[in-house]
Sequence to fold (640 residues):
Amino acid sequence: MLNTLNVSMTGLNAAKIAVENVSNNITNENTPGYKKRVVQLDELVQIDSRFTGRGVNASSAYRITSQYMYDKLMTENTKTNYYEKLSNILGNVESLFAETEDSGLSSDINRYFQAIENLRSNPNSEIYRSNLKKQGSNLAESFQSLYSSIEKQQYDEKQEFYKNVEKTNDILKEIGTINQKLVDSNGQNNDLLDKRDQLELELSNYVDIKIDRSEGVYDLKISGKTAIFNTNVRTIDVAENQNSQIDKFNHIKYNPDNSFQIYDSIKYNADYTSKNIDTNDVVTYQLNNEFKVSVKIGEVIPDISKPKDPLTNNYPPLDINGDGNFEVTEDELVRALVYKINTNSDIKDSVTAYNGDYALDENGNKIIDNSKDNFLRIESVQKGISNRFNGQISIEKIDNTNSTILQGREVININTNESSTAESVLSIGILDDEVKLKTGILKAQIENLSSVSGNNKYQDYLDKLDTFVATLSDITDKYIKNGTDDYTYGENLSDAQFPGTINNIGLFSGSTVKTFKFDESAVDSLTQNKLDYLATIQWKKDFNFNEKTGDGTSVTKTSLLEYIRELKVSVSTNKEDAKFFNDTQKNVKLSIENSYNQLTKVDKDEELLNLMKFQATYTANAKIVTAIDEMIQTLLGLKR
Fold:
């Protein structure tokens, strides 16, 4: 009888604990990260030969979860956040390209061309001339405003990126702290496990993670790199590498014995033997379609590094070889050009010219062989994508016996295999080991903040705007008239099969939006012939837009207005594509999340049923206790 009383008492205690657990579940229904608890009920182990049981034991309360579904949820959550961030980035850019009937790039371009037409119809009208000045300046300002707005968004995104990296590291540290507490509690703390799960899910917003929890090990990897091993935490570092643009004008000839020779491409053609230049030929370096310096054989160059002659107030002549011969020879062209570039006030702050490659001594000083012409190397003064430039070498072929006869023109391109582009590379790493993210918020941000990323939409749109203004600046700068309504436009005149007469206009200058300028004074010198030429630009449909691939091979042929329309369509298409993927991924995540929550979240109806069940259990055991008590009282009464 006493054994039966003991069994009932264990039932009462187990029911009480189960009711308390139900109450705790209902109370924490809306607690973030909380997973419902279930009390573990076990039969008490027999300790003697009795046939009846000893009762029930409420040994522990365990969490309801599914590690497989949870890990899958984190994976899909990371992908969702990647597309959501990308969609937000592209949506913000799309808003900058928004146009109304009276505002936007297309409207500004149309107003500019209408101003050209108006002045063309009456070249003597001061009203039309003034309007063209206004519309040209407005067009330049519109491009610069749009460009700077995109750069501002990119800058703001970069600031947010650094904050997100900081948040990621804070989460890693907090998980490490929880792991230490779990070690101290032998891993039996459900509240800590819930908190860690919540932090892991939050971490998966930013980076893709995989976690190994097998056999007491906790190994959290970010894109395959261990960030947390048990209680040891390794945080993420950010690396920013800025590289200079380097243009090399040379040819490389490889010999059968694997040795090679370097030839100056200004002087030599690609066959390494025939010469590009001759007496009277003019070699010109032009920077950003704006500033230029020229050198020709036989020229005497003032040496501005030395004091002026007090009698003539002129600088002494430059002696390149130190042989007392002041006239530039064929073998001194590169060094003469280097000197002029590096002493030109409009150019020297942007780029530095060198006579070939250089080495560095132990103090970091550049060692250059200036005993002979090597080849022209042009390097940006400042590093990074924002300091890239557009430099070009052209040669005017002048008859070597009659300096008034122009025989042709030639453009000397850079050696793309030897040159390097300006880069701004953003990356993250753990212990100096680069982490190449597969998805997540940080992945979307790095893609659009690193210039070497093929998915950098910011840079793509900025490049296209640069391409447009470079083309517009080029074709409104100069032209050759070949016949009635037949023209050679802009830089194409350098490749013309016949020399022709170059007509200079100079309305726009610059090869990037940042260097893009409208010269109002050039409007005052517009003649009817120049206006007739400018009027053809609006309707020409086969302009070459070099897409800044580095090798100049990717060319788009279209009109100016169509190019802008295609750019706007591209922006909108990219945004819609990202939104589609984002919506699709959200549905995938939501499906898994609903299934996971159905398993782990507190269901109030289910808990109320459990409450009724355990209350009934408690009542039944209480009745047994009462019955036993009455029996004992009866027996004691009989004894008296």
